[in-house]
């Protein structure tokens, strides 16, 4: 099973959409392997968004992402990275398809409710950045037999 990082961003927290966003992932059948609320420090933001540090809009990102705590989740499932990205919709919420989290609830490029890892490699790195091994849990969901065919469960 693949693991990926989801961050429920300050706009979702402030708008009272955290539960709605979480519900979308749960209803799809993704397993919550870890979840916590965390205030993002400058150091963590610089590390997480290191690919954007030199961009002129980086200060705007750090200001936005530190307005409120975020909810960090490690989700697990077959092809979890791609599944989560599809559930989220494209980054610019105005262009996101209806039925996606961003398409249904967002109007912004930055205030787009969620961050989702963009690759399996980044998913592993991001989960490790936000969660210690002790904060991640192994268990079988009660409905596992109804989420995957027997030959898909690993």
From TrEMBL:
CDD domains: NDPk_I. Residues 1-138 form the Nucleoside diphosphate kinase-like domain. Its main location: cytoplasm. Its cofactor is Mg(2+). One of its GO terms (cellular component) is cytoplasm. The keyword Ligase does not apply. It catalyses: a 2'-deoxyribonucleoside 5'-diphosphate + ATP = a 2'-deoxyribonucleoside 5'-triphosphate + ADP; a ribonucleoside 5'-diphosphate + ATP = a ribonucleoside 5'-triphosphate + ADP. Keywords: ATP-binding, Cytoplasm, Kinase, Magnesium, Metal-binding, Nucleotide metabolism, Nucleotide-binding, Phosphoprotein, Transferase. One of its GO terms (biological process) is GTP biosynthetic process. HAMAP family: NDP_kinase. Homotetramer. Belongs to the NDK family. This is Nucleoside diphosphate kinase. It comes from Dethiosulfatarculus sandiegensis. The lineage of its organism: Bacteria, Pseudomonadati, Thermodesulfobacteriota, Desulfarculia, Desulfarculales.
């Amino acid at each position: 099973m693949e693991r990926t990082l989801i961050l429920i961003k300050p706009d979702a927290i402030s708008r009272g959409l955290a539960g709605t966003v979480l519900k979308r992932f749960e209803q799809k059948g993704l397993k919550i392997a870890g979840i916590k609320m965390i205030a993002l420090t400058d150091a963590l933001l610089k590390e997480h968004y290191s690919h954007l540090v030199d961009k002129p809009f980086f200060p705007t990102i750090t200001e936005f992402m530190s307005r409120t705590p975020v909810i960090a989740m490690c989700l697990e499932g077959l092809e979890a990275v791609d599944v989560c990205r599809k559930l989220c919709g494209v980054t610019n919420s105005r262009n996101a398809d209806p039925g996606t989290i961003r398409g249904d609830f967002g109007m912004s490029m930055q205030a787009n409710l969620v961050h989702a890892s963009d690759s399996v490699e980044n998913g592993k790195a991001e989960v490790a950045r936000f969660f210690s091994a002790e904060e991640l849990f192994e268990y079988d969901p009660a409905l596992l037999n109804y989420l995957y065919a027997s030959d898909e469960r690993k």
